[in-house]
Amino acid sequence: MISASLTERLRRAGLDPSAVGDPEKTWTQLHDVIGSRATLIDRYDLEMHHRGIDSIDEIPADERRAIALRVMRAHTPGMELVGESGGDPVEVVAYDDGWPDRFQEWKRRLETVLDPTVSIHHVGSTSVPGLASKPVIDVLVVVTDVDDERAYLPGIESIGVPLRSREPDHRYFRPSPGAPRVVQIHVSNREWARDHLLFRDYLRIHSDARDAYAALKRRLAATYRDDRLAYTDGKTEFILDTLERAASWAGNTGRQDD
Asked: Has this prediction a pTM greater than 0.85?
C-alpha cells in the first residue's frame, strides 16, 4: 500500500496514486517535479506496491542496491563510487559529550597533512549538543578547488580514511568496509558547505527542531537498520524544510557563514 505522504506528493506532481504503473517510471516522473524530495523510500514504496509485497526486505539485496544506486545518481548526476561498498548497521545513540573532543583529534590530524589555508569544521549530528546521532564524527574540509584532488586526497588517505565517492563540488571519505566507521570526511567548496553549516547552527539554537530531528532519525534507524542509504535519504524532506526556516532565521539574525 502506498503511504499517505507519498500519495499526497504523487497528487501534487499530477500523478494518480490509484493508477501508478511501472515504479521506475513513476518515481522518475515524481522526481522531475519535486526533485530530491522524491526519496529512495518513495522508490521502495512504489516497488513494494508494484510487486504486491509488504516489506522491502522481500526484495533481494542486489536488486535493492541497484534501485538505490539509480536513485542516488538521479539526485546527484555525475556521482562516482570508489572502492568497495558495505557498511555497519545504522545505530542512533544518545549524544556523547566526548564527540567535540573527537572532532578536535581528527582536525589536528588533518592539519598535519593539509594546506593551512583550508578550513575544517565539525558538522553533522555529532556537532549539535544534545542531538542523538550515529557515533560517527562528520568533518567538513572546505577548499578552493574540489577538483584539485592532488591538494588534499593523498593527505587524507595517509591518515587512514580513503576516498569513497566523488560528486560535483564534493568528495566523501570514510574508513574501508570492515574498519570501524568512526569518522566521515567531506571535502567541498564553500557553496556546498554553506547549507551544512547553516543546518548545524540552526539545530544548535532551536531545540524543538533538534528534538524532532532526533525522533525522525530513531524511527528511520529502527526501520532501515541495514540500509544506510534509505536511512540517509529518509531525512531529506525534514532537512530541506528546516533549511528553508534556517535561511529566514539567518537573514533575520544577521548570521554569517563560518
From this structure: yes
